[in-house]
Design goal:
The complex is a heterodimer. Chain A is mostly beta strands. Chain A contains no helices and eleven strands. The chains are: A mainly beta, B mainly beta.
Chain lengths: 109, 121
Amino acid sequence: EIVLTQSPATLSLSPGERATLSCRASQRVSSYLAWYQQKPGQAPRLLIYDISNRATGIPARFSGSGSETDFTLTISSLEPEDFAVYYCQQRSNWPPLLTFGGGTKVEIK
Amino acid sequence: QVQLVESGGGVVQPGGSLRLSCEASGFTFTSYHMHWVRQAPGKGLEWVAVAWYDGSNKYYADSVEGRFTVSRDNSKNTLYLEMNSLRDVDTAVYYCARGWEKTAGGGKLDYWGQGTLVTVS
């Protein structure tokens, strides 16, 4: 089973700052790496899929990158609505099992 | 627009059973693999199960294998999760989510319902 480790657990930043979130896999993963945003009391929302593709309606300030075992979600300039918890997720080739990272909370400094 | 509406959550005693439903609309249900994901109170997301677009294949997380059964009724655009031998640790909000299109491949969950709370106590 592939384990995804996200760091840091909490990121304290101010609006306008750049956020860099890390997701590290215990072994090489396929290109099926996604990122989600979750706000309190809400369902998760897909931000990025296949490592670097923005989902429909996602602003350009969100970008994804990485390969093999190391992946990054970058928010170029934090807006007030971006303070939330972010999860990475991967899919194994076969069987097609999914795993999530433990999450990174981006909080207002 | 795509909508996923879960129902069936509630309070159940340890060892009991519960069946969750997820009614889908706004897309061609028969073209997509469908997933269940759960979130224990104050915790992160945990993938639970997937049902293939036609119900032919089903896969489970180790934590629920043998106790939970995912199924779908494509004539009703509905996904189900039958949960047996429930444990305290199964207490969570259960979300259904749309997976990837059957011919496209991928690993994303692009639409989610609002979830239904299951409390085992």
